[in-house]
Design a protein that fits this description.
This protein has helices at residues 14-20, 46-52, 58-63, 82-102, 115-118, 121-128, 136-144, 148-172, 178-191, 254-272, 280-298, 306-312, 426-432, 447-454; strands at residues 28-32, 36-41, 69-72, 105-108, 132-134, 196-197, 202-205, 227-231, 233-235, 238-239, 242-246, 352-355, 384-387, 390-393, 406-409, 412-420, 435-438. The chain is α+β, with helices and mostly antiparallel strands and 469 residues long. A hairpin with a 2-residue loop joins strand 9 (233-235) and strand 10. It holds the Pfam family AMP_N.
Length: 469
């Protein structure tokens, strides 16, 4: 709860949203070969409507979310009258318990496990028999590769965040304050159509930039210090994640520039490695070798021991990106990146069930059923990752004094394609045979461009028009 009776803003579980398209709390979804998608929906009383407004119920589950079956969730709630409970008890036993008992395998959403079904005798029996497994293994497999409909949202999410960060960078010279920059970024994102921040913004000025997940955002940025902003927004369930580091005063110091150029070179070289067949682990290992050598040349790394390097950069080079910022936890970083898959729409019989949000058995899982409402699976779908090298040197570090208190990270969102990563113009893809698309490429990161931008406040001070999806 945000306060005594006021809750925090609700964010739907990504797997539940992926399968149902429903952003509303309080429901349970069941997915099975015998029943299709069945949704148990919350009901509202006149008092609920007075205080909280209307909510989507059984009718919406059938008409809007295209469920095959839908029932009130009141059948599962213990606080209803005995008469009302008995009215639905036979439905509950007939539908949910019988499905569980007949299933060869049972998958459920571990993150949103709900006592209203977990406590059912049939579910507990399935656990004791070893039938219950985490359904994320299947949803993440499907979510890892993005459909064209999803990519449209991710491009727009990245575009909104990029435009907002650019405006925030311009704002920083006039208002060098962490809290103001955080507020400015959120304002610019929401004005362009984003529903929320993808995560709590990291706005670290000076030595605060060396704190990887710094969250206070309440200090003034001193003249001559860098500010590190790691930010992103969410657009209809799809996130962006971008980091830039710059001096609000408009000029890098020599020491800042030395470290920054090393991080920028690493960022650009790692981007060139983003192609089908490469793994995040391989890109990470390359970045470690590159940064270790650079740190040694600058005199801030004097040991070859892994822990010495980790003191300067304990993070991975990147992660998967999608409905969650750190997307698809069940997909390892050793998985080769690939440009696309064909998801065949087939119906096959299997005695498996998933509740809490969905289901199927691994050998004959029909991934064509795992798509958002209105999403279309096509033959050219792609994964999205981040590339984010950095260096984090607290003020009390045992390094040359000129490097103390500096934190730098440069992070881009990268779409893997058949020919490489994406750039703005298709002819450049063909000319350079690139294998990826940098969705956040519009935000400058070269020192010369950054200094030119920050010293020309007339640039971009208007707000670009953006038609959110």
């Amino acid at each position: 709860m945000m306060t005594d009776v006021v809750p925090y803003t609700f964010r739907q579980d990504a797997d539940y949203l992926y399968v149902t398209g429903c952003q509303q709390p309080g429901g349970i979804a069941v997915l099975g070969h015998n029943c299709g998608l069945c949704m148990f929906m919350p009901e509202t009383t006149p008092q609920d409507v007075t205080w909280q407004g209307e909510t989507a119920g059984v009718d919406a589950a059938l008409s809007t979310f295209k469920a095959d079956e839908a029932y009130p969730i009141s059948a599962l709630n213990k606080d209803q009258s005995m008469f009302f409970k008995l009215r639905w008890l036979d439905i509950l036993d007939r539908i949910l318990s019988s499905w569980i008992e007949c299933s060869f395998q049972l998958f459920h959403n571990v993150n949103t496990a709900n006592s209203t079904y977990v406590n059912l005798e049939s579910f507990q029996k399935a656990i004791s028999n070893g039938k219950v497994k985490d359904f994320a293994v299947h949803t993440h497999e499907a979510r890892w590769i993005k459909s064209e409909a999803e990519l449209k949202l991710m491009r727009n999410s990245a575009s909104i965040a990029s435009q907002a960060l650019l405006q925030t960078m311009l704002h920083s010279k006039i208002f060098p304050n962490e809290e103001m920059l955080s507020a400015k970024f959120e304002y610019e994102c929401r004005m362009r159509g984003a529903q929320r921040m993808a995560f709590n913004p990291v706005v670290g000025g000076g030595s605060n930039g060396s704190i990887i997940h710094y969250a206070r955002n309440d200090q003034r940025i001193q003249d001559g210090d860098l500010v590190l902003m790691d930010v992103g927004c969410e657009l209809h369930g799809y996130t962006s994640d971008i980091t830039r580091t710059w001096p609000p005063c408009g000029r890098f110091s020599p020491a800042q520039a030395e470290l920054y150029d090393l991080i920028l070179d690493t960022n650009e070289e790692c981007l060139r490695l983003c192609r089908p067949g490469t793994t995040i682990r391989e890109i990470h290992n390359y970045s470690v070798d590159k940064l270790r050598k650079g740190f040694q040349e600058l005199g801030i790394l004097k040991s070859d021991q892994p822990h010495a390097y980790h003191m300067l950069n304990p993070t991975s080079i990147g992660h998967y990106l999608g409905m969650d910022v750190h997307d698809c936890r069940t997909i390892t970083y050793d998985r080769p990146l690939k440009p696309g898959v064909v998801l065949v729409c087939k119906l096959s019989y299997s005695n498996s069930l998933c509740i809490g949000s969905w289901a199927w058995d691994g050998d004959s899982f029909d991934y064509s059923l795992l798509s958002c409402v209105a999403a279309e699976w096509t033959a050219g779908t792609f994964p999205v990752i981040t590339i984010e090298p950095g260096v984090y040197i607290p003020s009390n570090s045992n390094v040359p004094e000129r490097y103390q208190g500096i934190g730098i990270r440069i992070e881009d969102d990268v779409l893997i394609t058949e020919s490489g990563y994406e750039v703005k113009f298709e002819w450049l893809l063909k000319l350079y045979a690139l294998h990826h698309i940098v969705l956040t490429a519009s935000v400058p990161k070269d020192i010369k461009h950054l200094e030119s931008l920050l010293n020309n406040l007339s640039y971009g001070m208007g707000m670009e028009k953006h038609n959110a999806v």
